[in-house]
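Two proteins, back to back. First:
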Amino acid sequence: MDEKPIVEFLKQQKELDGAIESWSFASFPLNYLLKKIDPDQGPDTYFSDYSGHKNSKIYVYTIEDDFLDTADPKYYFLNEVD
């Protein structure tokens, strides 16, 4: 996706009335992208204990460096992982 037009619009709005404080971008979930590349791709991504008894579906995103500084913690549970 070409972000330049969106970034220019956001900059204009920020300068206009300050209604926009900051912004950042995140990708689609990795599972979605892999299925677009190969529709027959295997199951979704899960984390589990060693036995596989307890598992949780996870979503992996790519984000910009400033995402955690930009996201509002009232709407997201923020956790940084390298």
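And the second protein:
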Amino acid sequence: MGVTLNGSAATACSELGVLLNLYKNNSTFGQNYILSNFRQATGTEVGYFNFGTLPHWLTPNQFMFGGGGAYGLLSGDIFSTPFQTWNGFKTYQ
């Protein structure tokens, strides 16, 4: 899969940031992404190469909860509106 963006590097970064936020705010993809990511990390994602191989890894980790940013589950501090990826995290727990 490739993405072609025209213009400067700053424009490309800005457009990719918009796409990432759209993804994190999408109720289908954002939530399912986190669920799949956590299942892969703990070896419980059926069909993934490490399925059943990590019996001692029970709890996945998220890079960042609050503060926004590319890996944040929340758009700001702990009182801010969560991204849909937060719902995936909450569902996993």
